[in-house]
Amino acid sequence: VIPSKIEPFGLVALEAMGVGTPVVGFRGTGIEESVVDGQTGFLVPYGEIEQLGSALIRLLSEPELCQQMGSAAQKQCQENFSLEKHIQKLEALYSEVLSAQLLHTKNG
Predict the structure, then answer these.
(1) Is residue 107 part of a domain?
(2) Per residue in 42-61, pLDDT tens?
């Protein structure tokens, strides 16, 4: 559960997802970058405490759903937020910047 109003990225969400735990939190916060509503957890409108509670109760009362979402959360974390994926994204960004810089130097 991540009920915070100000969560710039959601590292706690990724840590939970990394060990197969579905995440419940508010829309409009940084966790939207990692949590897929209805697949890797639940996102409810900000400030809707009753909906937050209902999402938690649903996961606790439906162990199979919790397991499915937990597995999907772990897969999402591994495929999109692993160290290897981060390195790939950085290398691609550096290549793009260097290519643009070389092109600018040749034409400039």
Answers:
(1) no
(2) 999 999 999 999 999 999 99
